[in-house]
Amino acid sequence: MTVLVRDLRPDDPADVAAFAHVRHLALPYILWTPEGVVHHLVHTHPDARSRSLVVEEDGETIGTAQLGLVHDSPEPGQAYLNTYVRPDRVRRGAGGLLVRTAEEYLATEGATKVFAWVLDEPSCLAFAARHGYGRRRSAHFLRLDLANAALPELPPPAPGVELCSAADFADDPRPLFALDAETLADEPSDVDVEFTDYEAWLAETWRHPLLNRELTTVAVVDGRPAAFSVAYTDGTRYSTAMTGTARAHRGRGLAKLTKTDSLRRARAAGYTEALTGNDTDNGPMLAINKWLGYAICGTEVRHVRELG
Known about the structure:
By secondary structure, this protein is an alpha+beta fold.
């Protein structure tokens, strides 16, 4: 048995498909497609020094890792590493090899602290602890049977609130960038970021192959986006990538309004499964998702390791 690690070959369709398949088996609560995998690798900002790794056993891809620097953090040396191995191929040394290879690379790029998401399962938590990673906050994955759910009626928009889609901003998406930057700054996070690069946002987010602009609902107030619920889709499944409201408009029910509208659009378009995720301390958003009918289907725990 030979286990080796190497870089993903983005120009090899079979290699990319194998990467996406391993991710789907290990983490089925997130949309993984070959197009999305390549997009992440090719269009992540160059300063992130990102890499996608695969580990093979006798030529078969059994594990993956995505890693890089948090280049837009005001604090230098922050990095991320997310490693997943096929559930039926664990305990072969694949995960440890990926972690060692990734950490060595990140250290050469100046990383001093590495953050990783780990599934809240005994074997995964024990693996993280063995490699020197300490627990931080946690987040839930949630699922909704969109085909059979009794979705609530759309709350009536308040006076002056207009609902539209991200597709209506195709000619000038900069207002959505401004809203995304503001809401991202207030998301629960272990690393502060300064989200100011519009061109990078266009490449990484606006042109992401899974972004469904028609199903992304935007609430507009006085001609400006005030809240949105961002939709990703992969053919049959729908996932909420972000639901957020500008600070000046919070407390008006706009998050519930946009997410309800987006879900109803998704069901009308034929999507049968809806996925989302929330920090476990994000009570308001968890309450909205419970009201919509979502149920928790998994949990992951944020971990961190100091590189010495």
